[in-house]
């Protein structure tokens, strides 16, 4: 999936040009205050590069799920304020993403200026990739940069449609980095390659587990999904989360791993609780001794040790999904231990990739983000890339 990037564009290519940049500014906001600006900071290298080369930078993004209509609580105003602070210059915000106000604002831009358009999902044409809306969105620009990896798996107007009207259409630095790490880990990893897959349901991770069985040397499973595998083995799982319609699948995945010579490791002990609550009574038991009426909410200390030993010689590790209910302190130890282990492995030269979603939240919460090789900004997009699926927002960009 080698694509042209902004690194291929010189100052001569960009100076005075109007560049539409699809960023991902879908950040958590509480009472108009941004509580985590990671995604905004992730877009800065691309914005600074373009502005520094004299381009007129027109930023577009979605925020939340306004379902194709204006929602006052989903305006991008707080993002413009934060961007202005981070860039050290005013980022003018439009109150629309198409139309006369946008055209007039863009016409008044000087080289190096940055403008933010309003939430692109205020129009149904965005998610429908409707040609008329797409053309209007593209009309104010000369070329296109996609730097929103988090929505690259969607064929929307601002991620895929505009490439039909703007040339060149290239990847920004963030997407380039995502492809380098995620694609690299799948296509040409330093071995041994381990994948740690967690999360509550097997059903949401089937695709990625199946794809990784073809690629990795070791597969470590944690989170609520493990209980479906235990039930498939005939073990008692008490009140633990089980997807009964996926028991046969769990059996076949274990058989496939064996057939392919992949070491598939499940926890040997679990932390169980008498109910799903932060103050529940908890105890650690072997997976073969889960009593009726109790549910597993984390992996136990023996499992952590087994996983650490399995990871010790790995040169590449991909992690997607927590080991337990890490939002509750009593059931966060497994996730914390894995995060800590990976941060230590990074220090010894292992490539560690945190593949989106809740595992990213856990790593950031522990302040270990800087200690990983790569933290993916995409949830669904990361999973689909690891599954080997084509991402429309990337496929639509110019080939290198």
Largest sheet: 6 strands, parallel
Helix content: 25-40%
Which structural category do the helix and sheet elements fall into? Answer: alpha/beta
Distance between the termini: 9 Å
Uncertain segments? none
How much beta, percentage-wise? 15-25%
Give the total of beta strands: 17
Q: State the strand order across the main sheet.
A: 5-6-4-1-7-8
Overall morphology: elongated
Mean pLDDT, to the nearest integer, reads: 95
Rg computed from alpha carbons, rounded to a whole number of angstroms:
23 Å
* Helical run tally: 15
Characterization of this structure:
Helix content is 35%, strand content 16%. The chain has helices spanning 11-14, 38-52, 77-87, 100-107, 124-128, 131-138, 173-187, 206-213, 226-232, 247-260, 301-311, 333-347, 358-365, 380-386, 392-395; strands spanning 18-22, 29-30, 33-34, 56-60, 92-93, 114-116, 143-146, 169-171, 193-197, 218-221, 263-265, 269-273, 282-286, 295-299, 316-320, 351-354, 374-375. The protein has a six-stranded parallel β-sheet with strand order 5-6-4-1-7-8. α2 (38-52) packs across α3, α9 crosses α10 and α11 (301-311) packs parallel to α12 (333-347).
């Amino acid at each position: 999936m080698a694509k042209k990037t902004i690194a291929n564009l010189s100052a001569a290519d960009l100076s005075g040009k109007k560049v539409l940049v699809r960023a991902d500014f879908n950040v958590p906001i509480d009472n108009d205050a941004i509580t985590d600006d990671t995604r905004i900071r992730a877009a800065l290298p691309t914005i600074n590069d373009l502005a520094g080369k004299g381009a007129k930078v027109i930023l577009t993004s979605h925020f939340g799920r306004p379902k194709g209509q204006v929602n006052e609580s989903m305006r991008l105003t707080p993002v413009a304020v934060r961007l202005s602070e981070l860039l050290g210059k005013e980022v003018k915000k439009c109150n629309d993403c198409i139309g006369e106000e946008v055209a007039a604002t863009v016409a008044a831009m000087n080289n190096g200026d940055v403008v933010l358009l309003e939430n692109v999902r205020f129009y149904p044409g965005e998610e429908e990739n409707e040609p008329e809306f797409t053309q209007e969105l593209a009309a104010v620009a000369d070329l296109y940069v996609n730097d929103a990896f988090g929505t690259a798996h969607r064929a929307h107007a601002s991620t895929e449609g505009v490439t039909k009207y703007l040339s060149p259409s290239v990847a920004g630095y963030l997407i380039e980095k995502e492809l380098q790490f995620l694609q690299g880990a799948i296509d040409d990893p330093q071995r041994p390659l381990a994948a740690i897959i967690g999360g509550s349901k097997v059903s949401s991770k089937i695709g990625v587990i199946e794809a990784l069985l073809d690629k990795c040397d070791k597969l470590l499973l944690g989170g609520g999904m493990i209980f479906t595998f235990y039930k498939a083995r005939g073990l008692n799982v008490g009140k633990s989360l089980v997807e009964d319609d996926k028991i046969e699948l769990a059996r076949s995945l274990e058989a496939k791993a064996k057939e392919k010579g992949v070491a598939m490791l499940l926890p040997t002990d679990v932390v169980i609780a008498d109910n799903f609550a932060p103050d529940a009574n908890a105890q650690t038991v072997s997976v073969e001794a889960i009593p009726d009426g109790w549910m597993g909410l984390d992996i136990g200390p023996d499992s952590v040790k087994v996983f650490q030993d399995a990871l010790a010689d790995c040169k590449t590790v991909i992690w997607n999904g927590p080991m337990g209910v890490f939002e509750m302190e009593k059931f966060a130890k497994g996730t914390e231990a894995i995060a800590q282990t990976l941060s230590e492995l990074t220090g010894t030269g292992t490539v560690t990739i945190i593949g989106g979603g809740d595992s990213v939240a856990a790593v950031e919460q522990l302040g270990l983000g800087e200690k990983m090789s790569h933290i993916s900004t995409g949830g669904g997009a990361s999973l689909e890339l690891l599954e080997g699926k084509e991402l429309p927002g990337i496929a639509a960009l110019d080939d290198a």
